[in-house]
Specification:
87 residues; mainly alpha
């Protein structure tokens, strides 16, 4: 496999991981909201403030792609595997 096709495959894998992480984040957030409603609580004030600092999928992709171009492809791959990504 050439370096460019390997890089392309790595970038695609990172995008897939980012998509899956975003789906998990949304599911957890929805579960927390449901529990708060069910038990009569409300969303904490700190949660409203923290929504402004949430990273977007595009931002994460851009940073990881940049790091991959800088030669950190193997390090990125090992971190993704370390934290449970399939690829």
């Amino acid at each position: 496999m050439s370096k460019m096709s390997e890089m392309s495959a790595t970038i695609e894998e990172l995008r897939n991981v980012c998509n899956e992480l975003e789906r998990v984040r949304i599911a957890i957030s929805n579960a927390a909201d449901w529990l708060a409603e069910w038990f009569g609580g409300s969303k904490p004030e700190s949660e409203a403030a923290s929504t402004e600092s949430v990273l977007t999928l595009e931002t994460v992709r851009a940073v990881l792609a940049g790091k991959s171009r800088e030669g950190f492809t193997e390090e990125i791959r090992s971190l993704l595997l370390k934290y449970g990504a399939q690829k």
